[in-house]
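Example 3.2
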Amino acid sequence: MFERLFPRRKPDPKPLPQPNAQLALGALLVRVALADRQYRAAEVGQIDRILSATFNLKPLEAAKLRATCEALERHAPGTPEFARILREEVNYADRRALADAMWSVALVDGKQDTDEEDMLHQIEAALGLSEADIDAARKKALRND
């Protein structure tokens, strides 16, 4: 009875970490996957594989990083802030490779979605990629689809 009258307060959520290149990449991958308002298991698995390969993480470590990135994506700054972090910490060739990774997330479910493509284009532009490199990444991804 008292529980209904005086419900226990939930503890304050743990503060989110400051975004770094790892978290910014993960959050942008999650953002691409969510662009079509569906978050499929195939997309989650692809994000985990990318994080694992990119940062040499074990599968459980990659899943934990992705979970942090999901929370960060929900509550953190917009795409330009994440892209700025990556522009400052990641060289151009590696940012081009990030575009390929993001395309793999967008297409892993076997569906080409205009919302995901629009989000990808915004991210690629914010990463400072040239129009030629953006176009090449799109063509490469769609060719492999």
